[in-house]
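Hello forum,

I keep getting stuck at the same step: I have a sequence, I want structure tokens, and every attempt I make locally crashes halfway through. Rather than fight my setup again tonight, could one of you with a working pipeline run this one for me? It's a single chain of 431 residues.
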Amino acid sequence: MSFTVWFPLLLLFLFLFMKIPVAFSLAFSTLVYFMFNSSSQPTDIMVQNMLSGTTSFTYLAIPFFTAAGVIFNYSGITERLMNLCELLVGKFAGGLAQVNIVLSALMGGLSGSANADAAMQSKMLVPEMERLGYSKEFSTVVTVASSCITPIIPPGIVLILYATASGVSIQEMFYAGYFPGFLIMVAEMALAGIQSRKRGYKPTRDRIGTAKEFAQNLKQSIWALFLPFGLIMGLRFGVFTPTEAGACCIVYALLVGALIYRTIHVKQLLPILRESVEATSGIMLIICASIAFGKFLTWERIPMIISEAILAICHTDWQFLLLVNILLAIVGMFFEGGAAMILLAPLLVPAAQSLDVNLIHFGIVMAINLTLAGVTPPFGAMMFVSTSITGCTFSGYCREVWPWIIMLFAVLLIFTYVPGIILFVPNLLMG
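Reply #2:
Ran it on my machine without issues. Output:
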């Protein structure tokens, strides 16, 4: 490849190393390419490609689901779900740690964002865990690790990004996320229980909630629990597309908050809108810049070159999947999961297709790996979010996190080489 091809790539890595935001790094690197190649590719094309990201019907699902998650937080549903979790798992060793993990699984269908979940639970649960005698380091690590579940359970934003980048069905990606998310929750609960018993962290309850207590709590939380179920059924029977599902979630969340719980008022609409825009804008900027960058990669056949290089090294699907896992574990420490997915999915999917790797299975493996990388020092995104809120030191976090990293990557390897676990629900629902 010529210098005009390599130079934008080198610039991109230089900018990222300098910690310039990903969106600006991508945009400026792409601009340099178009400037060097202005005779054949006018710079207007870059602008057109960037704007196309904002008009994509598929990408509209991201701001819709993000806004729905914000509205659910304002509606008080999060607190009601937490009370339900305590009734279910509060009697186990490390009661609040267990609540933390199960709440992340339930919030997967609401927030869809690991960083949002980590921030919320760092504010809500970590202070209470410390008050009951849990160490700050343990509480922070549990919160960060549990937030890994959130993006895997629909409507995780990273699932939408992969589906859009690879051309697979968003609906099937949603179906494929449920069972792995549940198994990660079980594995985390087991580890939290083992560590809590060793450290003497007591349950918050002496028994599982009674039928009366469950009935009272379900009356309050059933509206939140209905959302993931309604999402599955609506997609399964073609009531709405994934993008339309996001719009329906916004309407549903507003109706629940305003009419049933009466916690959302007109004066809160502006803060809700502001938070939704702030949460969405960063992702959409990255998407717009990455679309233009992707055109540059496609014109220069870089995905095909990378695919051929990988195939020259990896002759079987298991070798390819191992190499990808190692690559993503490294890249994910430096890139936010969504940004990494946008950049890497178009590069790796051609090689996966050549080796007959199921693309739904491959997408979930990528999503889990990039999410787990957010837990890993020194640059994990969820690590930074939670430690900045809880005040946990970097050294304290590092001492506490390694058993969780080992467990999570062991689970990832099982998912990688037993695709039936990931494909169980899609095969069940899609036939």
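The mean pLDDT is 81. If your local run keeps crashing, start a new thread with the error log.
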